[in-house]
């Protein structure tokens, strides 16, 4: 039996490797996952939520460059290296975009950056403000690869950090939907009768409510926030899992190996958990991949409506909401970049779901 299972697994793996788009999608998902985990190592602005605002350089085009003066504010960052790795650092400097500067005696004289050819306000600061009086080392040219958003924040940093919500909501939502769906579907399919009728009644009522409306209702009940959205999305995606599990178990419980397990005196829990569920995992894997994509789209929709992840937390859906009107103002990249990111991630999960379906098809 073990050899048979191993041969079927290896056969499915070989079929999956031959699917070019499936393998490509797999590595795209792995890459986005690594970016999500180690975002603060990769981003130019590693402050918490990449929330360094510079209103004087708002809505700049990709590739924009400016001199940035960093003034120490005597605040110590006491967060650990692990906290900085996953949650960013506390701001210990005040950043000011400048157009030029000069040193006059004991003062650093700089001109603030302004747009539209205007001359910025000239200000000065004592050199002793900087450690070891090395003022020029605190002036660096900053390049904004994706430009800046309407608050002057680095858009590349916001995009990379925003990948976390879209990526991890898929895992959390699918995990919750699997737990609830497996439980409800297993009970309904295995026991049948009134239990099946009652659970199907719950499924039909839940299924009749529009998904987005149900998510909004759950989100409002739990409150706005990061984890509340994750839970709300997960609690609306168990229906498909439950229906698939129920149908598979109704067919599987009539097979000989289930009859043999009952004759040996095994408990219902063991028969379902150890014998039936391992044999119906193929359709569950496929539907889980589809639910990943659906969860990402639902979260993006919630963030667009303003009831998803709350500011200043970065979210691709919220970025589209903040900048969709810039499409007609000549700066469409502010809305298109997060939209393309959502499209790539959703497409990757859909393609890998199709590849898994083909690989796990025993008739193919």
From TrEMBL:
Keywords: Cell membrane, Membrane, Transmembrane, Transmembrane helix, Transport. It comes from the Bacteria. Residues 163-353 form the ABC transmembrane type-1 domain. It is found in: Cell membrane. The chain crosses the membrane at residues 20-43, 167-192, 198-222, 280-298, 334-356. CDD domains: TM_PBP2. GO terms for cellular component: plasma membrane. PROSITE patterns: ABC_TM1 (PS50928). It is a multi-pass membrane protein. InterPro entries: BP-dependent_transpt_permease (IPR050366), MetI-like (IPR000515), MetI-like_sf (IPR035906), OppC_N (IPR025966). Gene3D superfamilies: MetI-like. One of its GO terms (biological process) is transmembrane transport. Belongs to the binding-protein-dependent transport system permease family. This is Peptide/nickel transport system permease protein.
